[in-house]
Structures are given as structure tokens and as C-alpha cells.
Amino acid sequence: MTLTVTDLAITRGGVPVLEGLSFELRPGRAIILRGPNGIGKTTLLRTLAGLQPPLEGHIDGAEDQIAYASHSDGLKPTLTVTENLTFWASVFGTSSIQPALNAFALNELADRHAGNLSAGQKRRLGLARMLVTGRPIWMLDEPTVSLDRHAVQMFADAVRAHLGQGGSALIATHIDLGLDGEVLDVGSNKAKPKPIDDFDGGFL
Amino acid sequence: MIALLLRDLKLAFRAGGGFGLGLAFFLIVTVMVPFAVGPQSSLLSTIAPGVLWLGALLACLLSLDRLLALDWEDGSLDLLATAPLPLEAAVSIKALAHWLTTGLPLVLAAPFLGVLLNLPVPGFFWLVMSLLIGTPAMSVIGTFGAALTVGLKRGGLLLSLLVLPLYVPTLIFGAEVARRGATGMETQTPLLMLAGITAATIALLPFASAAVLRINLR
Fold it and tell me: Which key words are in the record (chain A) (predicted)?
């Protein structure tokens, strides 16, 4: 399933942040999203995930294909690791959470309450959720925050395995994950302020 | 859908989930009424249906601000919105979970608290009946209010102000059923109105809640 984005313009809080964005995300490929803080990487991922409508342009092939991981992991502190994952697995209609537990070395923590996990362990659980969604296109927003070097490697391996199975990923990150994907720097797509037309100019 | 219902029920019963808070509030309010109005049993039995209905309504209100706010704070609302489950179904399930953990216990506790207020014997059946039919509407309307105020700092107070006026029709007809039942009058008309309001809110409000939630998540 190829995700095609044509001439996309997006807004944050009603203010245009990015415009003229076009790219294609093919199966088995990863795109690393870069750009300075505040440029609109999170807004772009939220728009592609369908949480907000684009200002202009088209997104094709996104319907029911995207698994989105935001800054927060969406974990319930009073549920155990297994219960958290099982919940998302049944929401997405997949059955087994064991591969996800294995991929992020969560087996030993399986019966711990998510509230008792460290920040890095929570993040690993949040990322393990991507595996139980069974969806082909991953949208990851700063996935490696609070992960140690070993866990970053674990995550990179999980993404590589996902790409190997014909999935694809769009990852906003500032570190080098060692993935063979193209880099998309959105810094040049910053929305320009609208030129002042005669009507506006009359007030100035 | 069942997974979401089971998760919400589990969360409510776990530590800090808030199960029983509304029930305890209902109990305390009802126990305090005789302190405030005096112990004459004739006066208490006159006001018992109205007091019990108002107490149940306020107890219901107490837990509404946690209904969606917790899911919003930990980010799971965003993830639910991108899940295959339609948002309309998700808010309906959350309203159902709220009713099972707050409304239903209130209905079951009401007859025992009726004894404390000297509720006349024929009134017990109609009190339980009216609460059973009326409380689902309170959960559904409350979910709509919670969707309106999700993401707002200190949205709980605003939520109460928004939701309480919407509870008025349910309160009027619900308390009327209980009052008429207690005095042995016929109850059919207010009971049908109450049931109609509940049926209409259950049918229509989930769509409004989901629409509001989509806007709030942007």
C-alpha cells in the first residue's frame, strides 16, 4: 500500500505551518522526517493519521492503513503491560501480543503495572503497541525519546523487520537510526506568510 | 468494542479508578438531608423522591470529568481516534461503562437510602424504576459534556455548568414519576416522557459527542 501525498498544506491552531509538501511512501521503505523544532513535523503526522484535516492537497492510501504513535504512549498506569497490549490488540483485531513483547524485551515486565515502569520502559511498551496494530504504515513521532542505546537498537531492528515484511514507516526523529530510508527535510516547506493584498493593505 | 468496555470497567475498579465515589457521595448527601430539614417523618417522606433524584443526579455529575479527560491526558484518545473503532461507538461504550460503574450502583442503592428518608412504601418501586430509566440519559448527556470540555484546563467546573441544564428534563420527569408513585397517583405520562428523553439521547447524542471530540482533537 503506497501512501501518496500531493501538494499538502497543513495548519496548527489555524495558522498554516507547512505547504507544497509532496512525497510517496512505498512498501518496504522508510522516510525520516527532519526539520527544526516547531516546523510542523508533529502536525504533519497528525494530519496524515487523520486526526486533523489538511488545508490543501491530497493524501491517498492512508485510510485504515496507518498506525500512529504520538509523543505520549497512551498507557493506562493501573493496567499491566500485558493488559495494555492486549487491549490494543483486540481494538485492532489482532490476536497475539507475544511477538511484540519479544521484540521490545518486555517479557520480564509483562505482569508489572504500566505505572511502575521507567520512562524508557514505558516508551518500549508504547512502541510495542505498533506491532500489535497489524497496520502497514507506521507514523512515529520522536520514537526514541528516553530510550537507551540498546533499546534504540531494538527499535531500529523492529522497524527493519516491519519494512522487510512490506510495511513502511514515516519517522520524525533527530538521531541516526541506521535505516536505509530517504530523508525528508521539511524545513524548505515552511508556509510563507500570505502576501498583503490591496484590501488588507488599505488598513495598514 | 467489548475490549474497550472491559478496559474501562477494569480501570474503574482498580486503585484510583473512582468506583464508589459517586455512591459514597449519594449516601452522604442523603444522610445529611434530615440534619438540614429536621427529623419530622411526614416532611421527609414528602421530599424523599425529589431529594433522592437530586442526590443521584449530583453523584452522577461527580465522576463525569474523568470520563474522557484521563484518556486525553495519557494520549490514548488520539490513539483510539486512529483505531478501526468508530468514534461514535467509542463514546457510546464509554457512556455505557460510566453508567455501569456510576448509574447502576446508584439505582441499586436508592431503595436503601429511601428507608433513611421515610419514603412511602409504594414509592420504592417507582423510585427504582424511574432511576433505572433516567440514569442512562445522564451518562450519555454527561459524555457529551465531557467531549465538549476535553482538553480544557479546569474543564470540570465548566462541564458541570454545561451539563446541569441539560439534565433538567430528565430530573423533572424522573422525580415526577417517583413523587407520583410515592403518593399513589398514576405514573404513565411522566414515565413515558422520561423513557422518551432517554431513548432520544441514546440515539442522537453519541453522534454529537463524536463530532465534538473530532474537533477537540485537532
Answer: ATP-binding, Cytochrome c-type biogenesis, Membrane, Nucleotide-binding, Translocase, Transport
